[in-house]
From TrEMBL:
It holds the Pfam family Copper-bind. Cu cation binds at residues 72, 107, 110, 113. It comes from Hyphomicrobium nitrativorans NL23. Residues 1-23 form the signal peptide. This is Amicyanin. The keyword Mitochondrion does not apply. Keywords: Copper, Electron transport, Metal-binding, Periplasm, Signal, Transport. SUPFAM superfamilies: Cupredoxins. GO terms for molecular function: copper ion binding; electron transfer activity. It is found in: Periplasm. Residues 40-120 form the Blue (type 1) copper domain.
Length: 123
């Protein structure tokens, strides 16, 4: 009888539209029109990322801008956790880092271009 009551209660809760909140993804691509005011910027120029390494707090959005004459991208992790599209001169890509950790990135057509983001827990 207790099992039947528990199953019935669970079905009632689920049918009422109860939704368990999910945690945010560790990494999220952020659209240009949704960028926060306090975005951290990385410039892509002269075949390198500047600055190449960052230290930020969880929840921070980082935006890469290609100022170079050739296309570049940003691939986070190996294997890729995020594979950014090729950015032409003046184009941008932004990622929100939601979880603490060390994230390395590279430009896939130019693997000598490397960078990293160290994400600290939110204070």
């Amino acid at each position: 009888m207790k099992i039947v009551s528990a199953v019935v209660a669970a079905l009632i809760v689920l049918s009422a539209g109860f939704d368990v909140a999910r945690a945010a993804d560790p990494l999220e691509v952020v659209a240009k029109d949704a960028l926060p005011a306090d975005v951290v910027k990385v410039d892509i120029a002269k075949m390198k990322y500047a600055p190449a390494t960052l230290e930020v707090e969880a929840g921070t959005t980082v935006e890469w801008t290609n100022s170079d004459a050739v296309p570049h991208n940003v691939q986070i992790g190996t294997p890729a956790k995020i594979m950014g599209a090729m950015l032409r001169t003046g184009q941008t890509m932004a990622i929100r880092f939601n979880e603490a950790g060390d994230y390395s990135y590279t430009c896939t057509p130019h693997p000598f271009m490397k960078g990293g983001v160290k994400v600290k827990p939110k204070a």
